[in-house]
What we know:
The chain is α+β, with helices and mostly antiparallel strands. It has helices at residues 74-87, 108-120; strands at 10-12, 18-21, 26-31, 34-41, 46-52, 95-102, 124-131, 135-141, 146-152. It has 2 helices and 9 strands.
Amino acid sequence: MTLYRVQLPLTYLKPGESCYTDEPSLVMTSLRSSVAIMMFNKRLHFSGICHVRPVICRNSKSCTGHCDEAFTHMDCATKQMFEIFDVLGVSRSEVDVKIFGCVDVTACSDTKIFKAMLREEGLHVADSHVTDSLNKKILFFTHTGEVFAKKVKKDKI
């Protein structure tokens, strides 16, 4: 575990939001019945994080163009993230993915489907910690891809 003594710019991520950067910063989010998906490319020191609901989109039509719910579903948000990494010329094998979350039992099957989708895309899930009962505060260091998760009580979220 690395502790940083440097003051980093802080971004607080709310549900349905995402953040991308190649600058050193700290992104914090609180998870409660939600999932944070983080992607990091070491070569470019580029990272992305999104805070989404732990469900797969049920839209039977393929998404085209702008989607108002792009960052509310795990699969839709990840497709958006792929596009950004693709524009930078980052191959799937160069991306480390980390998934942290707090989900209820009904969303567990969607989380398993989502992880299988990531494997099919050729992505390496470097870390995954999705539980069914704990609330978490997530700290994501964008310049290293490191993630720290702290369990918190419901009234502290």
